[in-house]
Amino acid sequence: MRRFLPDRFTCLLLATVLLASVLPCRGTAAGVFEVVTDLAIALLFFLHGAKLSREAVVAGMTHWRLHLTVLASTFVLFPLLGLLLKPLLAPLVTPDLYLGVLFLCALPSTVQSSIAFTSMARGNIPAAICAASASSLLGIFLTPLLVGVLVSAGGQGAGMSWHAVGAIVLQLLVPFVAGQVAQRWIGGWVARHRAMLAWVDQGSILLVVYTAFSAAVLQGLWRQMPLPVLGGLLAVDALLLALALLATRYGARALGFNREDEITIVFCGSKKSLASGVPMARVLFAGHPLGAIVLPIMLFHQIQLMTCAVLARRYAQRAEAKAAPATTG
Question: How far is residue 293 from each of residues 22, 261, 277, measured CA to CA in Å?
Answer without folding.
Answer: 24, 33, 10
